[in-house]
Design goal:
Outer membrane lipoprotein wza fold like; 4 helices; single chain; 239 residues; alpha+beta; 26% helix; three-stranded antiparallel β-sheet
Length: 239
């Protein structure tokens, strides 16, 4: 009988130890959860599930309201591009919708704006023009905020004439080589003199000079330096 009583006593001791260990684990888990809850105000916003897409999306925090004019991005670099005849300009005066307009540069290089009248735009960068418009408006408005955006580039173009499929003017809105221009014009017509092509380019002195281009050589990889980038107002002549 003694060994059986001793076994029951040992069983009760082990059972009590297990109960105490479980109680300690539950208490520790509750304290840890409480600590995490107290820091939740400083934590990032929870990730929520979008019922429409089924994807997890972070809860957005609204941006604070501001009374400063929004930054507008020009389609061309405002510090480097030079406005030309035919270009379309978006003249925006902050909080002045009656004055803000989209205008085209006339053949004489002039634009017309309310309260200002005529002002020369051709030959200026967008930044230079917006400074001039702001200076003119400051005579009638208090601290005008002006933004000039080039919305249509029509002054940059080149011409292809002669024995090509589609002669005419083409926009020069990105870098184009002579080979590119010939391809865009549809290629040569019959009897085109592919070895005697030349480009008419106006120099800084206002005079035109010829730049010769031998198509046969270039497509064979000979004298590839002939395949130059075109400049605005260049004329490619294919005899």
């Amino acid at each position: 009988m003694y060994p059986q009583a001793q076994g029951r006593t040992m069983y009760k001791f082990v059972f009590a130890f297990i109960v105490l260990l479980g109680s300690w684990a539950i208490t520790a888990a509750a304290q840890d959860a409480s600590s995490q809850g107290s820091d939740s105000s400083n934590a990032a916003k929870p990730v929520l599930s979008n019922p429409d897409t089924g994807k997890d999306e972070a809860k957005a925090t609204p941006l604070p309201a501001t009374d400063t004019p929004a930054t507008r991005v020009s389609k061309v670099a405002p510090e480097g591009y030079v406005i030309g005849i035919g270009d379309g300009l978006d003249i925006n005066v902050w909080k002045e919708p009656e004055i803000s307009k989209t205008v085209a540069v006339r053949p004489d290089g002039i634009i017309t704006l309310p309260l200002i009248g005529e002002i020369k735009a051709a030959g200026l960068t967008p930044n230079q023009l917006q400074d001039q418009v702001a200076a003119s408006l400051s005579k009638v408005l208090s601290d005008p905020q002006v933004t000039v955006i080039v919305v249509a580039i029509n002054s940059l173009s080149y011409n292809v004439m002669g024995n090509v499929a589609k002669p005419g003017f083409y926009p020069l809105t990105h870098p184009i080589t002579i080979l590119d221009a010939i391809s865009l014009s549809g290629g040569f017509r019959d009897f085109a003199k592919q070895k005697k092509i030349y480009i008419l380019r106006t120099g800084s002195d206002g005079k035109q000079h010829k730049i010769y281009f031998n198509y046969k050589q270039v497509i064979k990889g000979i004298k590839m330096s002939q395949n130059i980038l075109l400049e605005s107002r260049d004329t490619i002549v294919v005899p």
